[in-house]
Every structure is written in structure tokens, then in C-alpha cells.
Amino acid sequence: MSRLLPYPLLATSLLVMWILLNGLSAGHLVLGAIIGIAASWAMTALEPAKPRLRRWGLIPGLFVTVMADVLRSNIAVASIVLRGRRGQRTSGFVTIPLELRDPTGLAVLACIITSTPGTAWVEYRSGTGVLLLHVLDLADEQEWIDIIKGRYERPLMEIFE
Amino acid sequence: MSATILIWSITVAQLFLLAAMACAVARMVLGPRAQDRVLGFDALYVCAMLLLLTFGIRTGTTIYFEAALVISLLGFVSTVALAKFLMRGEVIE
Amino acid sequence: MTHAADLPAWAALPTAFFLLLGSGLTLLGAIGLLRFGSFYERVHAPTLGTTWGAGGILIASMICFTVLQSRPALHEILIAAFVIVTTPVSLMLLARAALYRDRTENNGGVPAFEAESEGTDGEASPKSSDQKQTKGQ
């Protein structure tokens, strides 16, 4: 099983993408399966670090949290744009010491932070585990540290470590 | 009645997206530095992709969808290449 | 444009709503891109268009095509997934490139890594040949 399908998630997502693009029929099902299996064989040559998911059950909850936060910060950033220069607003950099060390978890955290309007991931030092973040509306530095560590880092640590 | 609402909203959405593209182009022209221009380009291709999707809704054909997919793929690759270029001055290391 | 009449009212209204929501958010993001003062503030602006801006238009497209062809049109999920994955990557790379350039040129307002200083404005002293300069190495 694991020799035929070394990366089952990659193979299935490629198959789903092929079906979505070409429509569902028996021929496309076979062709998509062949492509998925061939691509996952090609991936073994690259030998990427295999992510280990410890707790699948937390993923939907995290997804819902992130979607709600993205919607909320969309509204916040839109109001900042509409207020223009009149509103008092300071933006700046925040440094956050992270405890998360798993590369996949860090990648997911980076995607979450950057795709949320108002926060942007700028730099991460893997030696010290310190993250440099840019925040558009920086009222309280400690508040942002608590948000990042409590809302995103802890569930990601539970999922990946 | 519903058709008029739909046509009008599509037109307004297309005008919004055109204005957004104009803003992105202005940022590309104004600069002031190379990374601002690349950022403007990034916003520009996303807006162009969304505009193509609204054309798809207007005409009811899926051809525009394929074009939008190609635009988003090429835009991503070129933005990454430009960012790499800004970082080191060479695209291929 | 003829097909729009075929769309029943219960589908046309959500389609119109999501279209206006998505394009409005994209426009606000682009205005922010134009108005904000420094590069690191401007990085935040396009995410407005790529999260719920793109999401709104894609949902509108999904509703429209699902009702018209009376089968679920899920193509749009592909674009949505693609945009969600790619935008953070390109913005992160751009921010890192900007940080790298500001540090090598010693522009003020950018934290050296451990420093706690808060700077908002990383505006460059006008250096016209900043691309050629790196190319000529």
C-alpha cells in the first residue's frame, strides 16, 4: 500500500482536481488516477519531510476560526482604508517568540497570518524561533502576541506535534 | 426584474474591478521602489482574474474560467520569480 | 447576456450580492494599496482582494453556474484553493525581499532582528538604479 501510494493525500487531491477540470467519466477517472499515482512516485524522488498529523479533529475548528478572523479583519482593514489619513493609527513590527517547531505547522501558520488582512509574516529565524510580524493597526503589542500564540499556535501545535 | 438586477450588479462589479486595476497600475507606475511595483503587479493580476470571472458570469460560458486559471498560475509564478530577483539579483541560483 | 433572464430571482439576488461584496472589497484593497504610506503597510492591502474579494466573486460564479446548468459547478473551488495557497507565499517572499533590501541599504525604520524598535516608515532615499545595481554584481 505504502509502496504503491507513498503520498495518498497528494494522489487523491490530484485526482479530484483532474475530475473537476474535465468532468466525471470513467475514462477521466482512470487517467486522473494514473496521473496521481505517477506524481506521487515522482514526489518520492524529492523526499520531502512527511508531515505527521496527530489530531485530525481539530482542523475543522481551526478552519472556522480562521475564516471568521479573516472576515473580521477584512472589515477592520476596509474601515481603515475608508477612514484614510484622518484616523490615528500606528503600524509597526512585533517580535513573537514561537514554540512551534514543526516545519509544516510553521508553513500553515505563515499562510494563516499572511492571508489575514492586517498582519503579515515578515521573517522567521529558525535558530531562535523568533518571528517578526508586521501589524497594520498596532494598538497593543502584547494583545497581538496573545492572539497569535493562543488562537493559532496552540491548535497547530496540538495538530502537528 | 431579477435579470435587470443581475445585469446592473455585474456592470457595477466590473467597474469596481476596473477601478481596482487602475489603482494597482498607478502603484506600479508611482513606485517608489521596485518591491512596490511588484506588489502592484500582484494586485493587478488578481483583479484581472476576477474581472475575467465576472465576464464569465455575464456571458454564461466557461471559457473565461480557463483563462482566469491560467492568469492566476502565471501571475503567481512571475511574482515569485520577481521577488526572488529582488532578494538576490539572480533568478536561478 | 441572454442567459441572465433564465436565472430565477432567488438565485439572482445572492449572485448580485456576492458580486458586489467581492468587487467592493477588492476595490477597497486596491485603494489601500494606493493610499498607505510605506511598503510594509501596503503589503496588507492586496490580501483584502484575495480573501473575501476573490471569495465573493467565486461564490457568485458558483451559484450562477450551478443554477444555470442545474448541476454543481465546482470549478471555482480550484481557483479559490489556488489563490488561498499562493497569495501568502508571494506576499511573504515580497516582504522578505523588501526587508533584505532595506537592511542591505541601511534604510531606517526596519528592525535589525532582535531590536525592539518600532518603525513605520521604510521609505527609501530615492535610489534610481536599484535594479541595475543588483544586476551588475
Automatic annotation (TrEMBL), chain A:
GO CC annotations, alphabetized: plasma membrane
Regions that span the bilayer: 56-82
Pfam families registered for this protein in UniProt: MNHE (PF01899)
Main location: membrane
Chaperone is among the record's keywords: no
Annotated coiled-coil segments of the chain: none
Domain of life: Bacteria
Entry keyword Membrane: yes
MF terms in GO: monoatomic cation transmembrane transporter activity
Location of the protein in the cell: Cell membrane
Membrane topology: Multi-pass membrane protein
Keywords associated with the record: Cell membrane, Membrane, Transmembrane, Transmembrane helix
Family: Belongs to the CPA3 antiporters (TC 2.A.63) subunit E family.
Protein name listed in UniProt: Na+/H+ antiporter subunit E
UniProtKB/TrEMBL annotation, chain B:
Keyword hit for DNA damage: no
Keyword terms: Cell membrane, Membrane, Transmembrane, Transmembrane helix, Transport
Ranges that cross the membrane: 6-26, 38-57, 63-87
Primary residence: membrane
Top-level taxonomic group: Bacteria
Membrane topology: Multi-pass membrane protein
Pfam families linked to this entry: MrpF_PhaF
GO cellular component: plasma membrane
Record-linked InterPro entries: MrpF/PhaF-like
Annotated localization: Cell membrane
Gene Ontology molecular function, alphabetical: sodium:proton antiporter activity
Xref: PANTHER family: NA(+)/H(+) ANTIPORTER SUBUNIT F1 (PTHR34702), NA(+)_H(+) ANTIPORTER SUBUNIT F (PTHR34702:SF1)
Protein family (similarity comment): Belongs to the CPA3 antiporters (TC 2.A.63) subunit F family.
The protein, known as: K+/H+ antiporter subunit F
From TrEMBL, chain C:
Segments passing through the bilayer: 12-36, 48-68, 74-95
Positions of the UniProt region annotated as Disordered: 105-137
Single GO molecular function: sodium:proton antiporter activity
Keyword vocabulary terms for this entry: Membrane, Transmembrane, Transmembrane helix
Pfam family, one: PhaG_MnhG_YufB
UniProt KW Membrane keyword: yes
PANTHER family: ANTIPORTER SUBUNIT MNHG2-RELATED
Protein name per its UniProtKB record: Cation:proton antiporter
